[in-house]
Amino acid sequence: MTTAPVTMCDGRLIKYGVISTSVLIEDLLNWNNLYIAGRLQKLVKIVAMNEDVALRSALDQNLKSAVTAAFLMLPESFSEEDLFTEIAGLSYSGDFRMVVGEDKAKVLNIVKPNMAHFRDLYGRILQESPQVVYQAQQGSLEIDKSPEGQFTQLMTLPKTLQQQINHIMDPPGKNRDVEETLFQVAHDPDCGNVVRLGLAAIVRPSSIRQSTKGILTAGLKKSVVYSSLKLRKMWKGWLRKTS
């Protein structure tokens, strides 16, 4: 993906990027770096889109994968807000920019004012999912946390996340296949933490690459301006918490 982190548009400082349809579909389905897929798990406005069946299917699958990954990291019972917060935070797992440069309340700030929009985005998937009991009126959900239920969920995760989990859990020299590793993880009380580590292993190198690309394509001056705005935002968030 070619990125230019900052440019002016209608008097506002914005980020934009250019990506091929094939690379976009690949990330949506497999979470190769979770950069674009992660953004499209949150609220976006599609201004124009050609009738592309493969792309529309990949966009839908990305949302389903986000729900499944979140299920694996949540307890047996939880609220809509818990779910949407977990989903919105998937692409920030392991992102070094969340340590320096981002408001720590960023994920909650995305979810809390937009609960109705998140329901619109994910409601149909939750209603149709056999993995969850979704009580929309109460805003509560229950999922199957049995090893069998978790194994089913793990087997439907995007390929790159499955491979990262396998890499984390497979002892040196063992060379187990992915399915065998996922079966073991499904029986592990720390299953959710393992999934989180797998996500971090995808996001961390991707976030570093994107930041480096940003400096190279936008130039040092623009990147410093953009970073200073991020730091100011983070500082304001910290002040709100301490006041």
Layout of SSEs?
Blueprint: E1 2-9, E2 12-18, H1 21-30, H2 36-39, H3 53-73, E3 77-79, H4 80-88, H5 106-111, H6 115-128, E4 132-135, E5 140-143, H7 147-155, H8 159-169, H9 178-186, H10 191-218, H11 220-242
Describe the structure.
- This protein is mainly alpha-helical.
- 59% of the residues lie in helices and 11% in strands.
- The protein has helices at residues 21-30, 36-39, 53-73, 80-88, 106-111, 115-128, 147-155, 159-169, 178-186, 191-218, 220-242; strands at 2-9, 12-18, 77-79, 132-135, 140-143.
- A three-stranded antiparallel sheet has the order 3-5-4. It has a two-stranded antiparallel ribbon with strand order 1-2.
Number of helices: 11
- Roughly what percent helix? 55-70%
Strand order of the largest sheet: 3-5-4
How far the N terminus sits from the C terminus, by CA atoms, comes to: 41 Å
Biggest sheet layout? 3 strands, antiparallel
N to C succession of SSEs: EEHHHEHHHEEHHHHH
Strand content: 5-15%
Shape: globular
Please provide the count of β strands.
Answer: 5
Rg of Cα set: 19 Å
Could you report the average pLDDT, rounded to the nearest whole number? 83
Would you identify the regions where 5 or more consecutive residues have pLDDT less than 50?
none
Function: Catalyzes the conversion of phosphatidic acid (PA) to CDP-diacylglycerol (CDP-DAG), an essential intermediate in the synthesis of phosphatidylglycerol, cardiolipin and phosphatidylinositol.
Main location: mitochondrion
Protein name: Phosphatidate cytidylyltransferase, mitochondrial
Keywords: Lipid biosynthesis, Lipid metabolism, Magnesium, Membrane, Mitochondrion, Mitochondrion inner membrane, Nucleotidyltransferase, Phospholipid biosynthesis, Phospholipid metabolism, Transferase
